[in-house]
């Protein structure tokens, strides 16, 4: 079993593997999207690929939790990594033999990758509290967020270079290399023995048990609903960032790329700050500050002048938007990890992920008609005003406002091996 003197090496070794596996996976994802763009020149096809990426998170997430809670998490991670590698290998081989591959195979490969990610995210998040002391969970969540932001910065640039310099089949094979490295580091990671759910899987009963457990913790349940509404509000604006640059500010595609990088840099620095200093004793203020940063960024972005000065200010606001995101995501995940037993975390995270993933596409459906009728900048104003209302509701709900008043006495979690 891991001890306080070895947990850092054990944990960071595992996450190094996951970081490299994740960045190769994102490089391949971008390369496949650009392949679709070049081959089809169809916005409909790109939208279809995006929707396919959402489907497993919406429909499969609730069923993933019971599997995670009843099986060996290490082998689940390795198995899903190998599934991703197999999909990439098959696609690359078909590409080498036939010099191209049918579009349906690209969509199938993207679906398999998204399916694997639907398993990997809650599995990793349920593993983390078994390796990390409870008082470090918020900082670790911030560090993980920073790592993911680095991936978001590096992956598009590297994918662009590789896509232009090499055959797409060679780029796809990066997924195999990343999966092997991630599986190898996971294989040598020492996971503490933990009680897991015995007996056969009964999906609906297990989901109902997870839902009942989530509902019992009123603060986390209400905060999850707030997070879902928050996602519903900001997702439409997030989807039209390139259009905001190219249409509203009459900019170029490289200018749109600058906006994406600025946002990712903000997220990275926010994650680094939380990883270094945490989110304070009462983390509800960090969550509220995150929502407030989105509200201010949205409202002011929507009323900027349509010139280069407005574009520069848009980037500054966009930086603070990105900076604020980890101050919601990291404390929220840490609260869940602290308050639920590790053997139940899979289904809890699966349910919360489903609510978040369901809210995203619903917001995207509204984005097009609103932007076409009122202008793309109106989506940012709606995001800002809506975020203010969400933040106000957070402070008005007693269960949410006082969620951190007794952090040392979690409702559903066993005493951690690292607790003194």
Structural overview:
Helices cover 81% and strands 0% of the residues. The protein is an all-alpha fold. It has a single domain (7-188, 200-401), classed as Growth Hormone, Chain: A, CATH 1.20.1250.20. Helix 16 (342-374) packs across helix 17. It is globular and about 55 Å long.
Give the averaged pLDDT, no decimals: 79
Number of strands: 0
- Beta-strand percentage? under 5%
The major pleated sheet works out as: none
Gap between N and C termini:
16 Å
Oligomerization: single chain
- Radius of gyration over all CA atoms, rounded: 21 Å
Q: What structural class should be given to the helix and strand makeup?
A: mainly alpha
The SSE string, one letter per element, is HHHHHHHHHHHHHHHHHH
Give the tally of structural domains.
1
Low-confidence stretches: 1-5, 408-420
| Separate helix tally | 18
Shape: globular
Helical residue percent band: over 70%
Annotated CATH homologous superfamily: MFS general substrate transporter like domains
Per CATH, which architecture?
Up-down Bundle
What is the CATH topology descriptor?
A: Growth Hormone, Chain: A
Relevant terms:
Major facilitator superfamily protein; 420 residues; MFS_trans_sf; transmembrane transporter activity; MFS; globular; mainly alpha
Layout of SSEs?
Blueprint: H1 7-40, H2 43-59, H3 61-70, H4 73-98, H5 103-131, H6 137-165, H7 168-172, H8 174-187, H9 203-216, H10 218-239, H11 241-248, H12 253-277, H13 284-302, H14 308-324, H15 326-339, H16 342-374, H17 376-396, H18 398-401
Helix pairs in contact: 1-2, 1-5, 1-6, 1-8, 2-5, 2-16, 3-5, 3-9, 3-16, 4-5, 4-8, 5-16, 6-12, 6-15, 9-16, 10-16, 10-17, 11-12, 12-14, 13-14, 13-15, 13-17, 16-17
């Amino acid at each position: 079993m891991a001890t306080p003197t070895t947990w850092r090496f054990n944990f960071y070794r595992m996450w190094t593997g996951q970081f490299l596996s994740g960045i190769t996976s994102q490089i391949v994802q971008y390369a496949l999207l650009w392949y679709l763009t070049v081959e089809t020149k169809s916005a409909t096809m790109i939208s279809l690929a995006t929707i396919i990426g959402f489907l497993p998170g919406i429909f499969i997430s609730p069923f993933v939790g019971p599997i995670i809670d009843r099986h060996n998490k290490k082998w689940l991670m390795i198995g899903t990594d190998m599934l991703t590698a197999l999909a990439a290998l098959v696609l690359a081989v078909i590409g080498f033999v036939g010099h191209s591959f049918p579009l349906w195979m690209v969509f199938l490969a993207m679906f398999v990758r998204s399916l694997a990610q639907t398993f990997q995210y809650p599995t990793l998040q349920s593993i983390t509290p078994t390796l990390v002391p409870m008082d470090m969970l918020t900082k670790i969540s911030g560090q993980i967020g920073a790592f993911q932001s680095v991936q978001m910065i590096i992956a598009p640039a590297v994918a662009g270079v590789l896509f232009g310099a090499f055959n797409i089949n060679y780029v796809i094979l990066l997924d195999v290399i990343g999966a092997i490295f991630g599986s190898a580091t996971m294989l040598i990671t020492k996971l503490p023995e933990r009680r897991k759910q015995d007996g056969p899987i009964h999906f609906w009963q297990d989901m109902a048990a997870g839902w009942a457990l989530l509902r019992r913790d009123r603060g986390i349940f209400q905060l999850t609903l707030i997070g879902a509404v928050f996602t519903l509000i900001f997702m439409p604006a997030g989807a039209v960032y390139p259009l905001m640059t190219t249409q509203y500010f009459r900019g170029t595609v490289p200018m749109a790329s600058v906006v994406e990088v600025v946002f990712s840099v903000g997220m990275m620095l926010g994650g680094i700050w939380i990883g270094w200093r945490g989110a304070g004793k009462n983390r509800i203020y960090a969550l509220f500050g995150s929502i407030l940063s989105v509200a201010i960024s949205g409202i002011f972005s929507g009323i900027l002048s349509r010139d280069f000065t407005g574009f520069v200010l848009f980037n500054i606001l966009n930086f603070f938007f990105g900076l604020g995101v980890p101050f919601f995501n990291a404390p929220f995940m840490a609260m869940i990890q602290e308050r639920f037993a590790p053997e139940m975390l899979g289904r809890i995270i699966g349910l919360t992920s489903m609510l978040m993933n369901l809210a995203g596409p619903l917001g995207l459906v509204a984005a097009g008609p609103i932007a076409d009728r009122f202008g793309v900048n109106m989506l940012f104003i709606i995001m800002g005003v809506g975020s203010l209302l969400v933040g106000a509701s957070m402070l008005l709900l007693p269960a949410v406002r006082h969620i951190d008043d007794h952090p040392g006495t979690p409702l559903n979690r066993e005493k951690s091996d690292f607790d003194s």
